């Protein structure tokens, strides 16, 4: 048997073959240059033939070999003496070379080729007869012009033909802009030459960007593959994987390749570890005689207690609050990254085996062997011990797993889908695990912490951040506030995130060359270091070669809406957007008052500064401001996400599930931060990813942000009425503890989730403790703007505007209390008296028009009118 590193490298080669198997689709559609004799030779070797026309079909398989040859100068070695499990000879055309395994997926012969071919079929959920028809089918006449359908548009929607689907993804490198679906007439080129040119641009992008992956990382295949995966995502996220026969083009080339690579790695490892590698097992795979054998294991990881981990507080939580919160949120991502890495390393699996990772969850495909199960049980114990020792069991990471056969991945139909049933079993396992945290019914962990009090230093006391851990160090050299090592690391992260855009994860024995920005506490056996761009370029080759460098990650935000999201390193999409002082803020710094720290361009705003950002000059005097000082917490998530994933698609597959998860996460980690920077720059991200978010910002701007977020989300999911988002907003002063703010925002979100009106559930928003539909909020926001104009035009007083709240309350109960109908006459009397006697600002015609307009708004919105009225009252309040 191989040692752990050799086994991981061998498994990585198998995953690489699976990942590359369809790269010929990009090369063929881009019409890259290829010698005629090579192309014809590859067709005869790799492509099936149509049973009637005898012509070669699936020409992309011939181009896979050509594409790999073109990219070979920048790839890890594909030939040589040490290429296990592939042939060790140097000839490229040897039957069991990596290139042949990747290219022969439509015409396989050997076991390794059949493993890739089987992974390809399993990823697509093909029934046997269905794949045979697909394998014999020819490309569509217009396959160059076919553009990727969106899965969002198809969820719970009955579209018998893809022509009925109105949206497509634009064919261009991954960017913020490219994540948003567009109308099909804007995405589909009119002419074939234009369509080919778009593919050629993607091919050129791939060839150019692959050169940016550090050369020194090529010998560490698992590290290099992580970079390459991000490049494939950037280049292939919008390329339709299937354009032959009747198969809908709704899975991207990237998602299909990633799923195939993970499945190929797991299948090979199962056969290798169980010694099922002879011709008998190759034949069984060919005829699906072993498709009921549970060779695969789906491993789900979940971070339990994220909210309590982020919002835990001690006596000094308000000190450096924004930095601490920023660091804690990112720390959750680091813990999940390192936990997933620990699982992969313990099982000797490459990065390609990690299918999804977002919002505290990850999914890994592994071989279903005794060794795997033994490692998983040990890993759960080590995770529990880490959280027991470092976090006193207030949070943790749970692992659950579900064995599966190839038949379990068949998509079936809406009524009988083996894959849906498989995912339901996995979700059930996870729900059970949530109630078995730390396995306290066994003797693995005591229920009382031993020697807890003895760990405290009398001079430092308890950690002033989490309120329970022994304090070990001061938050700065000249400070008397003491915190634990983890809290100190989190504060450091909060600072480093504003200065660095990359990080390294390495084993504890790595030589860091005296790197300063390194965490003190190891994360499940790994150390983490934040680096500058110039430090990352070529200085860590020795760590990569020695395998001590396990990940090199870029988490930067894009500069422009159309900037490609790849920089030569593995990309992680983590919403780290925070508000900074602009040149305009400095010019208007008097709005912050003497209570706030001085503003410096480029520095991050505190919540005290954000609370002042919705104030306005009083009569164009920038030294005098009106409006309250307040912030708003905006919390929300996607409604019924579990049902969308488990039952939304009529023919779900492994690749579709991975794609749907990735695309949902992208709204909150790619689109949302750019929305904030572009239109709502005074926003602070507490967390955003997966399907939920928590943002802080000026009280009024957050209301507008909530509306814009919902409108953009509706566009993002192709205006599918079955996919909705709900939000809760809580307005408050800046000095409240974050735990209180979070709890209040969560209550507001719960109220939105409980909304029900006209057979509509959820899909709502709570503002000023008032829950309503999104269209109602849009109308009230428009009226708030109108009320501001009316107040300016007629010089409406605060008292007059406040009276509108009383009239709205009376209107809402007039059916049950007829005397309340007097609000109409009272509104008319109050308006005439104010405008005639107090303000003297309007004619009779204007007064009647104002009364009519306000009456209509009161009748329409009733008590909800306070959402608009409060905005005007708060804007008028307080002059300084």
Helix segment tally: 30
Radius of gyration: 30 Å
Instruction: State the shape.
Output: globular
Number of distinct beta strands:
22
Largest sheet: 6 strands, mixed
Proportion in helices = 40-55%
Oligomer: single chain
Strand order of the largest sheet: 16-17-15-18-21-22
Low-pLDDT windows of residues: none
Mean pLDDT: 90
Termini separation comes to: 77 Å
Structural class: alpha+beta
% residues in beta strands? 5-15%
Walk me through what this model shows:
The strands form 7 sheets. The chain has a 6-stranded mixed β-sheet. The chain has a 4-stranded antiparallel β-sheet with strand order 4-5-3-6, sandwiched between helices. It is built from 30 helices and 22 strands. α6 crosses α11 (253-273). β21 and β22 form a beta hairpin. By secondary structure, the chain is an alpha+beta fold. The model has no long low-confidence stretch (mean pLDDT 90).
Summarize the structure.
The protein has 880 residues and is of the alpha+beta class. The strands form seven sheets. A six-stranded mixed beta sheet has the order 16-17-15-18-21-22. Strands 4-5-3-6 form a four-stranded antiparallel beta sheet, sandwiched between helices.
Helices, strands, pairings?
Elements: H1 4-20, H2 23-29, H3 36-46, H4 60-71, H5 98-103, H6 111-124, H7 128-136, E1 167-168, E2 182-183, H8 184-187, H9 192-209, H10 221-236, H11 253-273, H12 279-286, E3 296-304, H13 306-311, H14 321-346, E4 354-358, E5 361-367, H15 370-391, E6 396-404, H16 418-434, E7 473-474, E8 482-483, H17 485-496, E9 502-507, E10 526-531, H18 533-536, H19 541-545, E11 549-554, E12 570-571, H20 583-587, H21 607-610, E13 616-618, E14 621-626, E15 631-638, H22 641-647, H23 654-679, E16 684-689, E17 692-698, H24 699-716, E18 725-732, H25 738-753, E19 756-757, E20 760-761, E21 764-767, E22 770-773, H26 774-794, H27 798-812, H28 823-839, H29 844-861, H30 866-876
